[in-house]
C-alpha cells in the first residue's frame, strides 16, 4: 500500500540490481549536486551563521538532505533518491535559465538606446568630408549630416537647416526644425535637410549617454515595496523551516514504513516549495520594464522609489511659466506712465534685463533689439528671484519686475493701475519699470499656453487628481490663465521660497504631491514634493532637483508618468501574489506528504517564469 502518490515513481527508479544502480546514480548525481549546485551552497549556507536563511539555503538544504540520505542508503542498501537531489537542482537551474532569458528582454531599452549611436561621422576638414569613427571626434569638429542619417553626436548647427526626428530622446514624434545656432543631439534622425554642425559634446557627455546612465541607475535602484517583500520573506523562510521540521517529526513518528523515507522526502519537498525564489524577481523586473518604457516615451525616471511613489499621487502642482505655457513670452504692450517715455522705458528695461536669464528678460531684450534700441551699460546688476531685477543704467537706479515688487519699495503705481488691470484681464504678465523711484510705465508680455495644456489638465482631473497652478506671476493674470485652462486652484505671486511652502502645506493636509516645474525657482519645490517632475527644456538645476525629467516638455508626459507608475505597481503586486501563491498553496500539500520534491522544484521554477513574464507584459500595455 502506498500512502504517498509519488512513491510509485520513486520506486520505479530502483531499476535492476540495487548493488549497481545506486552507485552509478551516486556518481552521476555528485557533480550535479556540488558543481552545478555550488552557487546555492555558496550563497545559501554562510548566511546560516547569522541566523538567517535565504532561498538558496532552502535549495541547498533540500537537495543535500536528499543526496546525503541517498548516500547513506546506498551504503546500507535500499532505495535511493539521487535523482531527486539532481532534479531539484536541475529544474531550479532550468527555471533560472528561462528567467535570465526573459530578464534580458526587460532591459531591452538600454540596448536599443546604445544601438542608436552611429559608428562613424563625416568630418569636414579643409573643405573635404572624411569619414571617421565617432570615438575620434573632438569638440569643435565640423560634421556634415545628410537626409536619413543619424546625427553622430551632440552639437550646434552651423549652416543648413533640416527637420530632425528626436523621438528617441523626447518621445515626441513630430520632427523638430533645426536652423543655425540650434542644438542637435547624437542618435537623433535627420529627416529632410543637409546641414553641418559643430561638435560640442562627445562620448559620455552626450545627452544620449546621460539618459542611458540615468535609466541604468534607476533600474538598479530598489523600490520601497521591495523592502516589504524582503521583510515578509525573512519571516516566511524561518516559519516554513519550522513547518518542515514539524512535518518531518510527524512522518518519522507516525508515518507508515519506511517512516524515515517519508519523513525525509516530505522535509525535502517543503524546503523546496518554501523557497520564495520568485519573490526576488517580483519588484526589480517590473521596475526595469517600467523605467525602460518611460525612457522610450521621453520620461526619465531617476529611481525606483519615484516610480513607486508616483502611483499614490493625488495632487498635481503645475508651475505656470514654461510648464503650462511655452515659457517664451513676447512683448505685446508698452504702456508709458506719461506720454513720450515709451522708448526710454523699453531701453532701460532691456539694458538691465540683459543680465538676466529669465524668459521675461529675454523677451524684453529681444523687443528692444527689434526696435533698434542701443542698450546702456549697467552696473550693480542684481536679480531678485521671483520678483524682478535692478541695476544702475545711465547713472540712474532702475528697478523692474512685478507690480508687487515696486509697490513693496513704496513706488506709487496709481498712474498705471488701469493699464495693469487691463493687461491682467487679458492674461498678460505686467512688468513694471521704475527709474530713481518713479514708475516709468509697464511692459505687457503674453506667453501662449502649450497646445496640450488644457486637455492634459482635464485628463488629470478625470483621473481624480486635484490640479493646482503655481506661479510667481501677478494674481489677476494667473487667475485669467488658470480659468482658460480649467484650473480651479491657483497660488499666485509666490516667491521661490513660497513655492516650497505651498507644497509643504498640501503635504501637511495629507496630500501626496507631484510638482511639475522647469525653472531654478521651482527647484526647492521639486525637492520638497513627493515626486518632482522637471521639464527637459528647463534649467539643469530643475532637472537635478527632480525625480523625473520629461524630455517631451508637455503636461501630457505627467499623465503618462502617473499611468506608468500605476501600471508598474499593479504588476509588482501581481508578481508578489504569484511569488507567494505557489508556496502558500503547496506547503500544506507538501507537509501532508502529497508532493513529490521534484514537482516542488518544478512549481518553483514555474513561479519564477510566471513572475518575469508578467513583468514583460508591462512592455506591451499602452499608457
Ligand atoms: P513663474 O513662477 O511663473 O515661473 P517667476 O517666479 O520666475 O515666475 O517670476 C515671478 C514674477 O516675478 C514674474 O511674473 C515677474 O513679474 C517677476 N520677475 C521675475 N524675474 C523677472 C525679471 N528678470 N524681469 C522682470 N520681472 C521678473
Ligand atoms: Mg517657471
Automatic annotation (TrEMBL):
The chain crosses the membrane at residues 20-41, 53-73, 79-98, 232-254, 260-289, 576-595. GO terms for cellular component: endomembrane system; membrane. It is found in: Endomembrane system; Membrane. It comes from Geodia barretti (Barrett's horny sponge). GO terms for molecular function: ATP binding; ATP hydrolysis activity; copper ion binding; P-type divalent copper transporter activity. This is Copper-exporting P-type ATPase. Residues 116-216 form the P-type ATPase A domain. Belongs to the cation transport ATPase (P-type) (TC 3.A.3) family. Type IB subfamily.
Amino acid at each position: 500500500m502506498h500512502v504517498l502518490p509519488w512513491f510509485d515513481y520513486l520506486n520505479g527508479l530502483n531499476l535492476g540490481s540495487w548493488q549497481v544502480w545506486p552507485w552509478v546514480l551516486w556518481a552521476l548525481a555528485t557533480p550535479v549536486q556540488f558543481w552545478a549546485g555550488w552557487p546555492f551552497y555558496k550563497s545559501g549556507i554562510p548566511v546560516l551563521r547569522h541566523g538567517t536563511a535565504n532561498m538558496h539555503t532552502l535549495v541547498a538544504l533540500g537537495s543535500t538532505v536528499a543526496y546525503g540520505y541517498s548516500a547513506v542508503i546506498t551504503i546500507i542498501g535500499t532505495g535511493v533518491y539521487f535523482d531527486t537531489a539532481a532534479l531539484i537542482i536541475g529544474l531550479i537551474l532550468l527555471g533560472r535559465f528561462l528567467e535570465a532569458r526573459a530578464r534580458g528582454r526587460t532591459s531591452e531599452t538600454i540596448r536599443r538606446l546604445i544601438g542608436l549611436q552611429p559608428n562613424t561621422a563625416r568630418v569636414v576638414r579643409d573643405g573635404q568630408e572624411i569619414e571617421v569613427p565617432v570615438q575620434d571626434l573632438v569638440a569643435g569638429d565640423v560634421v556634415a549630416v545628410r537626409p536619413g542619417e543619424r546625427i553622430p553626436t551632440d552639437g550646434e548647427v552651423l549652416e543648413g537647416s533640416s527637420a530632425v526626428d528626436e523621438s528617441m530622446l523626447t518621445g515626441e514624434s513630430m520632427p523638430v526644425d533645426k536652423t543655425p545656432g540650434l542644438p542637435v543631439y547624437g542618435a537623433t534622425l535627420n529627416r529632410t535637410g543637409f546641414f553641418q554642425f559643430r561638435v560640442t559634446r562627445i562620448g559620455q557627455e552626450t545627452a544620449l549617454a546621460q539618459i542611458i546612465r540615468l535609466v541604468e541607475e534607476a533600474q538598479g535602484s530598489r523600490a520601497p515595496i521591495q523592502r516589504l517583500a524582503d521583510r515578509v520573506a525573512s519571516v516566511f523562510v524561518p516559519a516554513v523551516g519550522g513547518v518542515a521540521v514539524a512535518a518531518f517529526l510527524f512522518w518519522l513518528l507516525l508515518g507508515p514504513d519506511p517512516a524515515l523515507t517519508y519523513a525525509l522526502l516530505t522535509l525535502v519537498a517543503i524546503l523546496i516549495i518554501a523557497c520564495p525564489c520568485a519573490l526576488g524577481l517580483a519588484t526589480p523586473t517590473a521596475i526595469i520594464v517600467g523605467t525602460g518604457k518611460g525612457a522610450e516615451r521621453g520620461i526619465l525616471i531617476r529611481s525606483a522609489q519615484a516610480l513607486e511613489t508616483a502611483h499614490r499621487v493625488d495632487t498635481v502642482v503645475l508651475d505656470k511659466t514654461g510648464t503650462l505655457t511655452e515659457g517664451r513670452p513676447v512683448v505685446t504692450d508698452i504702456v508709458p506712465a506719461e506720454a513720450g517715455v515709451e522708448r526710454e522705458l523699453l531701453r532701460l528695461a532691456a539694458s538691465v534685463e540683459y543680465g538676466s536669464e529669465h524668459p521675461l528678460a529675454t523677451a524684453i531684450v529681444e523687443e528692444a533689439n527689434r526696435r533698434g534700441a542701443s542698450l546702456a551699460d549697467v552696473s550693480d546688476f542684481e536679480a531678485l528671484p521671483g520678483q524682478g531685477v535692478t541695476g544702475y543704467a545711465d547713472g540712474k537706479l532702475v528697478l523692474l519686475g512685478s507690480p508687487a515688487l515696486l509697490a513693496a519699495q513704496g513706488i506709487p503705481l496709481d498712474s498705471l493701475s488701469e493699464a495693469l488691470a487691463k493687461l491682467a484681464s487679458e492674461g498678460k504678465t505686467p512688468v513694471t519699470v521704475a527709474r530713481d523711484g518713479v514708475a516709468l510705465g509697464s511692459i505687457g508680455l503674453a506667453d501662449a499656453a502649450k497646445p496640450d495644456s488644457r486637455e492634459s489638465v482635464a485628463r488629470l482631473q478625470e483621473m481624480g487628481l486635484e490640479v493646482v497652478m503655481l506661479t510667481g506671476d501677478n494674481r489677476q493674470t494667473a487667475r485669467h490663465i488658470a480659468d482658460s485652462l480649467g484650473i480651479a486652484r491657483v497660488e499666485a505671486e509666490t516667491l521661490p521660497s513660497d513655492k516650497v511652502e505651498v507644497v509643504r502645506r498640501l503635504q501637511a493636509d495629507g496630500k501626496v504631491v507631484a510638482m511639475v516645474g522647469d525653472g531654478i525657482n521651482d527647484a526647492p519645490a521639486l525637492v520638497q514634493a513627493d515626486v518632482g517632475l522637471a521639464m527637459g527644456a528647463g534649467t539643469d538645476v530643475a532637472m537635478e532637483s527632480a525625480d523625473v525629467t520629461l524630455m517631451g516638455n508637455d503636461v501630457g508626459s505627467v499623465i503618462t508618468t502617473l499611468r506608468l507608475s500605476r501600471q508598474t505597481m499593479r504588476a509588482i503586486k501581481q508578481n508578489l501574489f504569484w511569488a507567494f501563491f505557489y508556496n502558500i498553496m503547496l506547503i500544506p500539500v507538501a507537509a501532508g506528504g502529497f508532493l513529490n520534491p521534484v514537482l516542488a522544484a518544478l512549481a518553483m521554477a514555474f513561479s519564477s517564469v510566471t513572475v518575469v513574464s508578467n513583468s514583460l507584459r508591462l512592455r506591451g500595455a499602452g499608457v
